[in-house]
Design a protein that fits this description.
alpha+beta; 4 helices; 7-stranded mixed β-sheet; 183 residues; Aminopeptidase
């Protein structure tokens, strides 16, 4: 894996006072792929605040800011199951200004080191997010194990109400990844 060119990263638990900035930075990072793929999308920010809040407040969630030289360069939400040790990467972002610098790979190494009892890591990413797919498969060692789409729905995704609109074209199309950890 690549390592950051400047200095090691650190994971710092998110303080309540930092939640608003965390959400804004995460949404700005996620918007890059949406705009690159679909042009400007006029709906609410992606992911919506309600989805971020759900991840932040879910049972077993741990939320960290990713720092380099004391500067905030990203963030991560993981969900830890201390009984099964089957953990999930819920949200993960690196500030677009730092893409390609190795921060994501170093942050992922720090996450794995923080949770050494993990048996399996799991995550999902949209079908069009080539940067994420490359990162998870080629940099972090995940494998694509499932493709959620209109013919095979994600069994864990809640149904949006009739008044909700799609966030982006094909927003039900996601790859599910797993990384089985060796001991």
């Amino acid at each position: 894996m690549n390592t950051p060119k400047e200095s090691p990263i650190t994971l710092v638990p998110l303080e309540t006072s930092d939640v608003s900035a965390f959400k804004k930075n995460l949404q700005e990072a996620f918007a890059v792929a949406i705009v690159e793929t679909f042009g400007k999308v006029d709906n609410e920010p992606i992911p919506p605040d309600r989805d971020i809040d759900e991840s932040l407040n879910a049972s077993g969630s741990a939320v960290y800011r990713i720092l380099q030289n004391g500067d905030n360069v990203g963030g991560v939400v993981v969900r830890i199951d201390s009984e099964t040790h089957r953990n999930s990467l819920e949200l993960f972002y690196v500030s677009p200004a730092h893409h390609g610098s190795g921060i994501g790979a170093a942050a992922w190494q720090a996450i794995e080191a923080r949770y050494p009892d993990t048996k399996v890591w799991e995550t999902v990413t949209p079908y069009f997010e080539k940067r994420n797919i490359h990162f998870y498969v080629n940099k972090c060692g995940f494998h694509i194990v499932e493709f959620y789409n209109k013919y095979h729905a994600d069994p864990h995704e809640h149904e949006r109400g009739d008044d909700d609109q799609s966030l982006f074209p094909g927003d039900e199309d996601f790859f599910r990844f797993e990384k089985v950890m060796s001991k």
